[in-house]
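Q: what sequence does this backbone want?
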């Protein structure tokens, strides 16, 4: 496939131009500010991932590096149940397209499903995961709704992964309470997919 081949022209430097700027995100996030952005190497991924993950494991699956941008609610306004407090996009670079597919199923989905009941982050427990049906993407896509909880209550994450050649695009929506946000995550992911394709074709 021509687009798959074109992704071999992508360098690590290209990734920062793939993640979405605020102006390209759904209306829902326009009042937000960038809370975190920057490169995402295998060491950082392992450090902030599930227990037992190592940079070596990620390298062995073919992951090279990534770049992320998170937008969040920075005001001190009280945000109640159902409030979407975070929207993020990530572009990951892999050695080949097949590695992206393996990652989606063997790392992303499998790691979440196998860690239900375990601690995640500070004082949080992974309560449940649910696979969601995706549609409208150029190639393969998978999505999960993840529920975690702690002293402060429940938080849901709706995460959608999709493939463009040897690039993995990820869109993420964080919500207060137990809520699925597939429509919003899909909007975010489709905007990200469009941007990734523009960058890839511009570099080809």
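A:
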């Amino acid at each position: 496939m021509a687009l798959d081949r074109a992704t071999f022209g992508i360098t690590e430097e290209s990734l920062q131009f793939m993640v979405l700027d605020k102006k390209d995100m759904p209306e829902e996030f326009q009042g937000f500010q960038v809370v975190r952005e920057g490169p995402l190497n295998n060491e950082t991924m392992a450090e902030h991932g599930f227990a037992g993950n190592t940079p070596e494991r990620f390298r062995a699956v073919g992951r090279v590096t990534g770049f992320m941008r998170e937008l969040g609610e920075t005001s001190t306004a009280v945000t109640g149940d159902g409030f979407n407090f975070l929207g993020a996009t990530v572009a990951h670079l892999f050695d080949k397209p097949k590695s992206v597919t393996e990652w989606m199923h063997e790392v992303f989905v499998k790691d979440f499903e196998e860690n239900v009941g375990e601690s995640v982050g500070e004082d949080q427990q992974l309560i449940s995961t649910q696979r969601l049906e995706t549609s409208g993407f150029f190639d393969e896509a998978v999505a999960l709704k993840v529920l975690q909880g702690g002293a402060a209550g429940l938080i849901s994450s709706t995460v959608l992964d999709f493939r463009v050649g040897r690039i993995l695009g990820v869109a993420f929506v964080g919500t207060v309470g137990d809520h699925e946000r597939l429509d919003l995550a899909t909007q975010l992911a489709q905007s990200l997919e469009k941007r990734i394709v523009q960058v890839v074709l511009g570099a080809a």
